[in-house]
Amino acid sequence: MSAGSESIHVSSLGRGDSLHQQVLASFPLCDMTEEDLIQNPQFCKLLATLAQHVDQTGLTVPLKTELDKVEQKLQSQRRYWLRSESLYRGLQEMIQDHCVRKCHGTVPPDQNMFCETMEKCLLVAQCLRQLDDSSSNDQDQPSVLGLKPQQVMELLPSEKSVQRMKQSLPRELEKHLKKKCLSLLSYYQPEWENESEGLKNSKLSHLSAQLEGEKKRTESLKETCRENTVLLQRHTQLYLSELIKCIQLLQSLILDHRLKIQTDLDRKKLDYLEGKCELVSQKIKTEMVEIQLDTYTSDTISAHRKIREKLESELKACRLEKQSVELKLASFEILGKEFEALAEEYCRLRQEIEMKNWALKEFTQHSDK
């Protein structure tokens, strides 16, 4: 397809938001959003062009035509089968009704003969259908119980009884079907059950049209329900995507707020711990003072203070003496290693002088005694 024809097809669907909406409507089964089409404009054009050749289910026009023909043929075969099946089930119901009436009361002889003849004919027809080998490809396949169709045909009632049954069959079948239709009418509209026979027959003639209308309305409601389901899924997807975005935004806001609050909490906690530490320190000092007051008297404390003052003065003097000695020692170290021997000799002599002074002192004390 040329670019010109493609642009014609795209423009025929609409422009902007209208194009997106029509593409989404043309492919309801696809899980797409309008945002996807906006983000992929070439893909949107492709879908708009493709919508001219396929229907909403994705089938092409020739395939859809062929499918419709096959569907019509299938419907025709189905109607034929339903007619045959309905007729067969109607005859079976007539036989069952006859058996029920026969068990609960007397039945007219002609009615009894009619039902028995019809039952035998149905059984024979069913047996013949089972024995029919025309649909089987295997010609050598043995028949059921070794029976032949001719043997089963011999079980049919007399020709006269069969002819009489065939003459009465349309009338009896019509009565049975009419009775079923009236039962269906009573079930569909219970208020019509007490109406006259003529009015029931009149309303019965319109029952099929009403049921057809109800069927079409039901199909329309189903289609609307499917469209609403697709629309709901699309809206749910959009809602979930928007909800995820909101959750992510909320998470980021919570994280930022938490970081700011955490800084304030840490600062307040630090102030609290500092205050508590200061309080504990003051409490320790108070306890120490209380212990001192409980342990020492005021005189003892004053004496300790004097002793402390004296010791501190002596310590100060010793530090000053140490400082002067260190200065002298530093001046001596300037003289070098030659003065080290003289200093050692001087120390030795001082020690000897001190020892002799102590011995002289002791000797003098003992002499005075």
Report on the structure:
The chain is mainly alpha-helical and 369 residues long. It folds into 5 domains: 3-58, no CATH class; 62-131 and 148-205, no CATH class; 217-295; 298-334; 340-369. It contains 12 helices and no strands. The protein has helices at residues 3-13, 17-26, 34-39, 41-50, 61-104, 109-131, 149-153, 159-188, 197-205, 207-295, 298-334, 338-368. α5 crosses α6 (109-131) and α6 crosses α8.
Largest sheet data? none
One letter per element, helices H and strands E, the order comes to HHHHHHHHHHHH
Kindly state the percentage of residues in helix: over 70%
Q: Count of helical segments?
A: 12
Tell me the total number of β-strands.
0
Which regions have little confidence, pLDDT < 50, spanning 5+ residues? Answer: 1-16
Radius of gyration: 61 Å
Q: How many domain units?
A: 5
Structural class: mainly alpha
Basic shape = rod-shaped
End-to-end distance, in Å?
Answer: 148 Å
Return the average pLDDT rounded to an integer: 79
Give the percentage of residues in beta strands.
under 5%
Summarize this entry quickly.
The chain is an all-alpha fold. It has helices spanning 3-13, 17-26, 34-39, 41-50, 61-104, 109-131, 149-153, 159-188, 197-205, 207-295, 298-334, 338-368.
Question: Main attributes?
Answer:
369 residues, mainly alpha
Question: Secondary-structure blueprint of this entry?
Answer:
Layout: H1 3-13, H2 17-26, H3 34-39, H4 41-50, H5 61-104, H6 109-131, H7 149-153, H8 159-188, H9 197-205, H10 207-295, H11 298-334, H12 338-368
Helix pairs in contact: 5-6, 6-8
